[in-house]
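Problem: given the chain below (431 residues), write out its structure.
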Amino acid sequence: MEKLLAEVAAELVAEAKPGWDYLTLRASCDSGYTNHRVTSEPPEHSERVRHLKSLVALGSDGNVVVEMRVEPDGAFTALLTDGIYQSTGSLPPSYTVVFEPRPRHVIPPYERTEVTSTGPLAAVEAELGVPLPAEVHELYRSGVTEFGDHVLLPADEILAVWQQLLDDEAFLAHDPDNWAEPIPHTAPRDTVRLVGHHPLWVPIVRYPSGEALCVDLAPGPRGRLGQVIQPSLGCYPLELLADSVTEWHRSPERIESSGMKGHYDVTDYEVDVVAYLGSEFPTLRELGLRELGDADLAPLASMADLRDLKLSGGRLRIDGLAHLALERLEVTATSVDVPAFERLTRLKVEGARVELPALPNLRVLDVSRADVDVESLPQVDHLTLNAEQWRRCTVRPAAATLTGEHSLAKALDWAGSLGVELPRRLVSGRP
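Solution.
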C-alpha cells in the first residue's frame, strides 16, 4: 500500500499548479471506480486535478476511503479506512454510515398460492406463487417471438431476468441517497405502483439497453391486472403501455418519452411566475423555483400532480400546498413553515428555523443547515445532521450522514460515537 500511495503522491505533485504549502486528497476507490477531490492550503480551495490514474490501483482489492496530505517534496501521510461513504461533491465533504440497508420503496407482502399449471410458463407461476393471465399463456403458446421491434423473452429466461431486476433493485438498498427518490412516471395516477421494481412485475421483453417490458400482476388501485408496463430505468420514466397483453400485442410500437417530461426549473423572473405556473402547467410533476425573495406559493395549489418541489428565497409561505401529494421537498429560506404533507418521503431544509409537523411517510431528512429542535426529531431511515446536532441527537436511523466536517479522522470518531468502529490505517512515506 505504501508504494501505491507514493505513486499517487508523485502524480499529485506533478499535476497540481505550484504555489501551495500542502495538498489534501480525499478519495474513494473500489474495483476500478474512483472519486476524488484535491484541495490546497492555505487557504483551502479546490485544485483542478481531474484525473489521477494512480488511484485505480488503490481499490483493486475492495473499497478504500483515503484522506492524504502531500508536501511539495512528495512526502505524504495517509489515513485509510472502509465502511464509510465519503462524498467529495462539495467542501467540506459529507460522511455517511449505513447501519442497515433499506429498500427504496416498501412493498407490502402479497399472498402466495400454490399454482399448478402446464405449458411453458408453469415454472414462472410456481416461483411467483401467482397465476399469469390466460392471454399471456396464449401468447407463449402461439409460437410468435417477434412483432415490431420487440423480441419475446423465451419462457425459460423469464425467471433469470426477473431475478436480475430484483437484484438490481436490492443493490440500491445499500445507498441511502436512493431510499426515498420519487419514481419518474408518465402513467395515469394510481394505475401503476410507484416503486423501482415489484416482484410481481413479470418481464416478457428485454432490450439490450436494459429496459424491460413487464406484465403487471400488482397494479395500482386504478390499474388492471395484467397491464403491460415499462419500469423506470435511467432517463426512462415508469410507463403504462397497454391495459393488457392482447392490446399491446396488437400495436407494440414502443412509446418514446423523455425523463425531463413534467419538469420545470426557473431562476429569473419577468412575470409572476408562481401564479403563471399554477394556472398554465397544472400537470407538472417536478418544479424548481430559485431566488424567490418573499413569496406566497399558494398559486401552486392547483398542481395536483406535483411530486418534487425545490425552493429557495426569503420568507416562503407553503402552507397552502398541504393537500398536495408531494414526495420530495427541498427548501432554502430565511423563514418557512412546513405543513403536514401526507406523502412526503424526503425533506431538506436550509437556513430557516423549522418546526417539523407529523410527516407519517418521511424516510430521509436533512436539517444539517437549519435551526431545529434536535431533541425531538422524528425517527427516519436516513438522517443528515452537523457535528453539533449529532452530539445532542438521540435518534438512531438506518443510515446517518455527517456534514460540516473536514477531517476523515474526526468522521471516524463520530461513527464510533454511534456505535460503529471502523478500521484505521495510517501510512506515511515519500516517492
